[in-house]
Amino acid sequence: MECGALILDSYESRTPRLVVEVLSPSTSTLDRFRKLEEYKRHPTIAYIQLGETRWPSATLYRRDGETWDTQAFETMDAEVDLPAIGATLSLADIYDGMTFVGLREAPIA
User: Fold this and answer.
1) Buried-most residue among 22, 51, 54, 103 (CB within 10 A)?
2) Residue 101: its pLDDT value, please?
């Protein structure tokens, strides 16, 4: 699915609708705060999904006018519905082939 006009000689889109950020332990703080706020300022982005690498967990930020709603997905059978782009992502597909050592679910905050 193409979400905007193709920019020749580039891997970027000027009108992105979805951003998926994979959180690594070394950059998680930067991704969750600084980069997240930058993504939220982009006018065409409808969804921002942050995905953990240490356990199966995703956080979805969904634009609702001028505000953002947040939803957490923490089980492998969870499905992330993205109607603005006509897609659904399952955590089972996102984490297909991955194993998690010592943790079965996201830790309780």
Assistant:
1) 51
2) 75
